[in-house]
Design brief:
Belongs to the binding-protein-dependent transport system permease family. The protein is mostly helical. It has one domain (57-274): MetI-like fold, CATH 1.10.3720. It contains eleven helices and no strands. The longest helix is centred in the N-terminal third of the chain and has 47 residues, at 52-98.
C-alpha cells in the first residue's frame, strides 16, 4: 500500500513538473519559431515555417543592438555582484560563527530583517542620487549586493558552524594571522556552499527585472530583462520577437542549472547534514 502511494505521488509530481515547467518552455520555443502573423494566435499550433533565425537577427538588431548591450551589462553586474557577495558574506559568516558576543543576536536579527523587510525604493533612489550612483552600473552592483547579502550570510554562517574550531586553532598555533586563517584555511573549505551561492545568486541577479527598472534607467544601461519592453506597446505586441527574446535570455540560466544542479543540492544540504 505504501509502495503504491509512493508511486502515485511520484507520478503526480512528474505530471505537475511537466505542466508547470516543461509545457511553458515548449510554448516559448514554438512561438519563437513562428512569424508575427501566426504568433499572434498564441496557440500550440505547429509553425508554418521555421523563422527562428530571422527572429533572432531582428531581436539582436532592435534599437541599435540593444540585446548585445544588455547581455554585456547583465554579465558585468552579475559577475561583480556575485564576487562581492561571496567575499563579504563568507567573511561576515565566519565572524558570526566564530566570535560570540552580546551583539550577535542584534546582528542576526538585522540580517533576518534584511530578508523579510521589503526594500524602500524611493529612499534608496534618494540615497543613490546623493552619492551620484543613480543610473550607473556600479550603483546597480551595490544594490544587488545589499539586497542579496542577508541570504548569502545565512548560507555561509550555517556551513562555517559545521567546521571544527580545531582547524582555526591549529592554523593560529602555526603562526597564521586572522586573515590567513580565513583565506588560506576556511575559505577553501567553503567550496560546496560557495558554488551553491554563486549559481543561485547569478541566476537571480541575471534575471532581476525590478531593480534595474527602478535604479538603472536609460537604453545604454539596459539589462536583459528590460529588453522585453522592446516588442510590447500599448496597442500591439510582436509575440514572435517577444518569445524569441525570452528564449535567448532563458538559455544562460538554464545551462547553469543543468551543469551545476548536483553542486547546488550538495551545497544547500551539506550544512544541514553535518549539523
Amino acid at each position: 500500500m505504501k509502495h503504491r502511494a509512493s508511486l502515485l505521488g511520484g507520478i503526480a509530481a512528474i505530471i505537475a513538473t511537466f505542466v508547470v515547467f516543461v509545457i511553458p518552455f515548449l510554448f516559448i520555443i514554438l512561438m519563437a519559431f513562428k512569424d508575427r502573423q501566426q504568433s499572434a494566435l498564441r496557440d500550440f499550433s505547429w509553425p508554418a515555417g521555421f523563422h527562428l533565425w530571422d527572429n533572432v537577427v531582428e531581436v539582436g538588431q532592435t534599437r541599435n543592438w540593444m540585446m548585445i548591450t544588455a547581455f554585456i551589462n547583465s554579465s558585468i553586474i552579475t559577475v561583480a555582484s556575485v564576487t562581492l557577495l561571496v567575499v563579504f558574506a563568507a567573511m561576515v559568516g565566519f565572524v558570526l560563527a566564530r566570535r560570540r558576543t552580546r551583539w550577535n543576536p542584534l546582528i542576526e536579527f538585522l540580517i533576518l530583517a534584511g530578508l523579510m523587510v521589503p526594500p524602500a525604493v524611493v529612499p534608496t533612489i534618494w540615497v543613490l542620487q546623493g552619492l551620484k550612483l543613480f543610473g550607473t552600473i556600479h550603483g546597480m552592483i551595490l544594490i544587488e549586493v545589499a539586497y542579496n547579502l542577508p541570504f548569502s550570510i545565512i548560507l555561509y554562517r550555517a556551513f562555517i558552524a559545521t567546521i571544527p574550531r580545531d582547524m582555526d586553532e591549529a592554523a593560529v598555533i602555526d603562526g597564521a594571522r586572522p586573515l590567513d586563517v580565513f583565506f588560506r584555511v576556511i575559505l577553501p573549505m567553503l567550496w560546496p556552499v560557495t558554488v551553491t551561492n554563486i549559481v543561485v545568486q547569478s541566476v537571480g541577479i541575471f534575471n532581476d527585472f525590478t531593480n534595474p527598472l527602478y535604479y538603472l534607467p536609460g537604453n545604454a544601461n539596459a539589462t536583459v530583462q528590460l529588453t522585453l519592453f522592446n516588442f510590447q506597446s500599448q496597442f500591439s505586441t510582436a509575440y514572435n520577437l517577444l518569445f524569441t527574446n525570452i528564449l535567448l535570455i532563458t538559455i544562460p540560466p538554464l545551462i547553469v542549472f543543468l551543469f551545476f544542479n548536483r553542486q547546488i543540492v550538495a551545497g544547500m544540504t551539506a550544512g544541514a547534514v553535518k549539523g
